[in-house]
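Continued from yesterday's entry.
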Amino acid sequence: MRSSLLNVVAAATVILETVTAQCPDYSEYSQQVHPPLSSGRYQLSYMRPDPVCRTFNSSVVEDTIKDMQSVIKDPDLYRLFQNSFPNTLDTAVKWRGYAANNSDEELTFLITGDINAMWLRDSANQMQSYLPLVKANSSHDSLASLYRGVINLQARYINEAPHCNSFQPPVESGIGPSKNQDLPDNFTPPAPNTTIFECKYELDSLAAFLEISTNYYEATGDIDFFRNFQWVSAIETIIETTEALLIGTYANNGSVNTVPYTWRRTTDSATETLDNSGRGNPVQGGTGLVRSAFRPSDDSTIFQLFIPANMMFSRYLDSTSEIMANISNQRNLANHMHNFAGRIREAITKYGIVNNPTYGQIYAFEVDGYGSQNIMDDANIPSLLSAPFLGYLNVTDQVYQNTRKLILSKDNPYFMRGPVINAVGGPHAGLGQAWPMASIIRIFTTSDTHEIESTLKEIVGSTAGLGLIHESVDSFDASKWTRQWFSWANGLFGQCLLDLKDRVPGVLGASYQ
């Protein structure tokens, strides 16, 4: 039966390759206006490829898009949902198949959009967009299968190169590797460019694997899936990797420790490399916080005890310990995961909460354990703003509320303000570039109708008529934006509107003209 299925899949792949050759390049397609335009003042383009050109078709997603038309009354807001929610399925499922050494092991290679590589963080969040629609389903054509394929491929990647953030297509796909840049990066431990696209160590990349595992398990209850394939070994790799990164810069006798990861890149941007011969700025040992050389924006940290990633890692390490506890002979590992998560949470409270003269107790963005602190927030998830979205704390938490007020004010050096959009940005896209992703997280973390509606209005009015969520937008000029095809942000917007439908439904009946 499996052999017959593989033959069908192989034949379908040949047909798909023929059809794909006749489909437009979405990198170009997403920069052009396509009819029919929405009937609102912004006249937003229709941005979905023809059904035959979509990389995955889901009837439950299509039904959801149709159902939301009667809920979302504003024509421009609906068009933005119509384009953005299915964007990952429409454009980013680059390849699906099975492992060469196990015909039952599903694999999904999910690109981030306009970059032909699979990021651990992006792919986990891209799948999260469809979490409300996921149910237990053994079919290869189901959303559950897509989830299983992403988890399996992420597990493989983590076992092969746990410090890396983005990866090349699996060998089974027959897709050749992509070139990242002309000059090779200098990093340890080394990893081959046939496997990795980039090897920036980001704690949140490992946390993303825990997140997507938790999401799939809680949606389906499919414990048998986690008992098979490489999931347990990937968790063991994650624990070994992160515990090694609890180390400080100096040993007790003052000698310099050998660190498990270093990174250097030939660049004219400080955020693309690490100082001190690739080690980064000094970090105090014994804090209980896990180091992260880079942020989820792929920018280097100033202080490597990066609080948002530790929040995310602690939260999902604890939830995946419950999965591990239901796997035979893994109770000790499950307890270890739970206890490790608890120690990180204690360390966040001890070192990550600081006193601000204006806002009181707040969470720092980064600390070094010596007393230095970086007070800011960045648009990418995990961020301090996203802490309730991640499930680390309740939105009513007073320290979080204090932090949120600072983040959404001029006291956050990366809160971009202007007549077009007001949102958190970051050094990745540069000064003046607000990220709609941060606007979406702002909506997720409030129930205030005015705040939600004013933020939605900015998002709807800042797509330059293209009807897609861009990476960043000039806060004074909507025609100046970055990344025409950024599937994660698009899916997150769709997920946000589905959340509003259940949580604050009235805002979807409002006008955003």
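--- second protein ---
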Amino acid sequence: MEGMELEPAVESQQKESLVSNGCVDIRGRIADKQRTGGWKAAPFIIVNEVAERLAFFAIAVNMVQYLVFQMNQSVPQAATHVTNWIGAAYVLTILGAFLADAYLGRFTTIIFFSSVYTVGMVLLTVSASIDSLRPPQCTTRPCEPASRSQTTFLYGALALIALGTGGIKPCVSSFGADQFDEADEKEVQKKYSFFNWFFFAINMGALLGITVLVYIQVEKGWSWGFGVPTAAMFCSIVILAAGIPYYRFQKPTGSAFTRFLQVIVVSMRNHFKGVEAGDGAGLYEVKTILSDILGYRKIPHTAQYRFLDKAAVRTDVEAKIQSRWRLCTVTQVEEFKSFIRILPVWASTIALSISFAQLSTFFISQAFIMDRKLGPHFLIPAGSIPVFSAMNALILVPIYEKWMVPILRRRTGHRRGITSLQRMGVGLFVSIFALASAAFVEKKRRDHSKQSTMSVFWLLPQFFLIGSAEVFTYVGQLEFFYDEATDGTRSLSSAMFLSEIGIGSWLSTAIVKIIEETTGGEEKGWLRNDLNKSRLDYFYWLLTGINGVNFLIYLWVARVYKGKGGEGGSVRDEPMEELGGEAGREDDEGELESKVFYDYEN
């Protein structure tokens, strides 16, 4: 009898140890929390990110100098090419996210595109090692330009690296977050810590890339400068593969873009038929516990964007439903609504990426012509100057996570201290002062009687402030875009915010081109090949103005934003009734409503 009584208890414990988000282990079974995921799996993903970011930043901060001194390009031309390349790398994240969510799964996508990335790194190293793949070194101007075959080989290598970045970046943070079950209160708290430490890993990789590897490039040459990060990229693949027994895997759910298009087509068709959705009470949903999208939990109906509800209105009750091109489920409609909701937030944070683009272009070009001496015997490589920004992030993340969050939590009642929308707002606000500082310092440098003797440490404030803006905005975006995504759009949602970096880089290129054309070109305009004769401070003031206007727009967007549950400003870092207690959220009157996160099931 005792054995029979124990059996239900054992079965209950076994069920409680299984994840509720549909993740499976490497054998295809529902993942067990005690054996997989959490901080058993996260370290492999974090170390992988360190290695990959080390490789990327080692290239990004050096590429302007490589194009200028090895490929004989002008400074504005090289800066434009680098921002275009960075832009392509991050916009391609949408392709990587689509493949991960629809067909390959996140882990397989990361491994495949990491291999593509590594091939590109090998080709880049070959380009730097073989003299025939570069033009003759320039001794007197005008310099002999690189031939078409030389630039084609180099740009082909950079294209593969951009493609690899596009496949990896939208999946790594989402894959890491998949290791934590949202229905488990303890694991949810660990997930938010993971986002902070993931950003810490990004900056650790950046720090190593722009210090150690830039130093190797200066001392040993370009072959070593690109060869070492190539080896690091290969190691990142090995490290990620080593964690396979501990990972939780989300199965691909099919193309989200196809489901979005189905909702648009069906809602338009029903609209022209005169169909009304009403209050949503009679909308179609499958009878099963899960939705009819593979491994996808149901999403309750919300009142926003009621026009789209028409896609879930059953016009012929007697007809047998065969195609989602004729009738969509509530879950499918709500998935599309969730995607639409994040678009204004996404659009209102793009301007910050224009400022970030200057870190690897004009900020470094400034540093190159300033006094970079550190003591009597050491000269700081220009490509290592962004270390000021990376170190700031490495210092701020632990301080924010260990001290600021508990203090803010006690004052605000939110489990993360402040919401992800508020955190992004802080970053956008700081970015205004970052570019203003850059403009003041550049004006002082340009007016200095001996420009080359002005210390590079004058650039510290702009790097410090842009690094602070990144700490708040980037981690806030990681949290926001993951939390507001649905089960089938995690990677796509991450790609949306990463694509901001790419679009920001392209917008930076466009602004540079417009300035060149309207102010007199490279010889007489604001941005000349000789920075000492340029008016770079005017360019920085222009970006300061853009950031200021963008901040005001963001405040309005954040104020009217409604999350998946329809609550204004609620992005699932809801206030708690008490520390360690049940999570809650504020209703429209500001009163706390008890809630343990988002309930996906009807």
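Confidence is low (pLDDT under 50) at residues 567-602. The first helix runs from residue 2 to 16. Will compare against the first tomorrow.
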